[in-house]
Every structure is written in structure tokens, then in C-alpha cells.
Amino acid sequence: MKTVLVVEDEMKIARLVRDYLHQAGFAVIEAADGSTALSLARAERPDMIVLDLGLPGMDGLDVTRQLRASSSVPIIMLTARSEETDRIVGLELGADDYVTKPFSPKELVARIRAVLRRADATLGGGEIVKAGPVEIDIPKRRVTVDDEQVDLTGSEFDLLLVLARQPGRIYTRAQLLDAVHGVSFESYERSVDAHIKNIRRKIEPDPKRPSLVLTVYGVGYKFTDE
Ligand code: CA
């Protein structure tokens, strides 16, 4: 049984999440503040952390930062609709996904399952990445879509590889820029949009209505996980 650490200071939400996770077959441990969360994470080694960003004292971003210093446990942030900047910072600190409040517990459970699946799949590594109709041969730097080879530039290849390696994972523009150049300057983040446009033109059945490389409004991009 997988164990989820739920970090939430609002008892009502914590109870709701706990009940749903139990029903869905997860074991649940709980913390109502950041420092308890950190010590539970160390002591109990949960498979997943559901982390409210708005916590008293140490906030969720500080918790994420401290967790990531020593652990790659999957983290799903719970954020208020107004916390868009925090969501982006959280993703850049290494959180895996977010759910916006008010959320349906059903959606949260689906996200938890998706992130756990992804975490398991990433362990494999491998030289060939397959995502939907896209196949990426890393050593040969070759991409095919439905077995047809497509020619991508170096940057387009690197970007697509990052996205397709973890379908469903949301990347901010800064993270994608890091993936391409190893360094990120905010003024260049829009260049990511230009690369994405080119990738879509080359791999999407209908580039105007992308079904593979999806835009996450206000945040960045992800490869479809459907
Ligand atoms: Ca809260």
C-alpha cells in the first residue's frame, strides 16, 4: 500500500482528503504545519506528499525547498487560485504537480495516481522514450511520430525530450529554458514559445489545435498524458 503524507492546516480539508485517500486504497499520515511535515517525511518516508502552500509559520514553498535538498519524493501542491506565482515557484523548486482549491477529491486522487505512475516510469530510464505516437531515440537523437521521422533542431529535440519523458508533468518556461541552454534568463522565456510552436508544426496532426504538446495557461507546457 502506498502512503501519502497530507500537509494541510485546515482540518476540514485535511479530513476530506484523508477520507478519499483511504477509500482509494492509500495509507495516510497527516501534518498541520511545515516542521511536523518535514520530520514525518524523514521518519516515515511516504510515497507521496500532498502539500498545502498556505501553512502557518513555514509555508509550503519553504517545505518544498527543504524536502528537495535531500529527497525526490513526489509532491503535489494544493494552491489557492490567487497563488499563481507560488505555483510557478513551487514547480521550479521541484514540486511535481498542483491542484487548485477548491478541488474535487476525485481529481486529487487521479493526479496522485498519475504522478506515482510517472515516478515509477522514470526509474526505468532507457535510451528510447515513447509517449503516445512519439518515439525518441536518445543516442541517435532521432524522433519519429507514427513511425515517420521528423527533423527537429537541437533545441527542439531537447525540449521535446524533457516534455515527453514525463507525460502530464507541467514545466514552466524557465525550466524548459534550463533544459535547452542550462541557464535561464526571464527575457528569453518567450523563446520557449517559439520553439514549442515549431515543434507543434512538425509533430502535431493539427498544429492549431495541439493534442500532444499542451499549453498550461499562466504556467507553461506539458506533454499529454491521455
Ligand atoms: Ca492553508
What does this structure look like?
The chain is of the alpha/beta class and 226 residues long. The chain has two domains: 3-120, 3-Layer(aba) Sandwich (Rossmann fold), CATH 3.40.50.2300; 128-223, Winged helix-like DNA-binding domain superfamily/Winged helix DNA-binding domain (Arc Repressor Mutant, subunit A). 44% of the residues lie in helices and 23% in strands. It is built from eight helices and twelve strands. The protein has helices at 11-23, 34-44, 60-68, 84-93, 105-124, 154-165, 173-181, 189-203, and strands at residues 3-7, 27-31, 48-52, 75-80, 97-101, 128-131, 134-137, 142-145, 148-150, 171-172, 213-216, 220-223. A five-stranded parallel sheet has the order 2-1-3-4-5, with helices on both faces. Strands 6-7-8-9 form a four-stranded antiparallel sheet, covered by helices on one side. Strand 1, helix 1 (11-23) and strand 2 (27-31) form a beta-alpha-beta unit. Helix 6 crosses helix 8 (189-203) and helix 7 (173-181) crosses helix 8. It is elongated, with a radius of gyration of 18 Å. The model has no long low-confidence stretch (mean pLDDT 91).
